[in-house]
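Onboarding guide, step 5: your first structure request.
Type a short instruction followed by the sequence, for example:

Predict the 3D structure of this protein.
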Amino acid sequence: MRVFISADIEGIATTVKWPECDSSQPFYPYHCEEMTQEVLACCKAAIEAGATEIVIKDAHGPATNIDTKLLPSCCRVIKKWSGHPYMMVQGIDSSFDACLFVGYHSEAGSPGNPLSHTMTGRPQHIRLNGKAVSEFMIYSLCAAYEGVPTVFLSGDKALCEHGEALYPWLVTAPTKTGYGDSVDSLAPARAHELIYEKTLLALTEGLKKAEVPAFPEKFEVEVEYKDHANAYEMQFFPGCHLIDPQTVGFTATDYYDVARTLKFIL
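The system replies with structure tokens like these:
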């Protein structure tokens, strides 16, 4: 079994403030260590479930966060950014049996995490065919585009609920709950245990029920920016148009075009 893991940092058990997610800040290595441990828990469970190869996309900020020395020998890690539209799942293709997401966070405009955002700090809300768009949604659909089902997600509780609404078979591991500018987090040791337990369940039982979701005939996307100047600028990207002073929209019939456009306008 080949497994793909995408890992972020704003949804791990220890982060709550933006400087903790910033590679220029002194406490950043502490949270990179936790990100590594949560990924490691996921890898250990995947191997127990039968994974013989695991590809991990280090998918936060500089994308050089994971301590690869601690990973099992069957793992490969994709670091930094190539510019490919798949971004946080760069490297995924139809040869994988399952896709898993670790340390993810709620979407822009959500109260589920003090660190809620979608890709950058510029969007206030993003909607795809009327649904709120998270990074998890964007990149799990990239996996689906390649024919790979998403079976596991860890991160804040609100995102886990969002993921379960998208994919009824999804197994989730909520590591924290957001309340305004605060979080109620699991102890890291318990987060590791939970991720291990739920990953194992996802790859032994959940994968049997998992599906690759059918895509609609048309995608209607709206990006509402916090700053009207961003909307003014992004209306000139090919295919985009201004809906109101703060919102840009575009339509696509192929999901790859959605991912490609979002890469440039977010």
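Each response can be followed by summary notes, for example: The chain has a mean pLDDT of 97.
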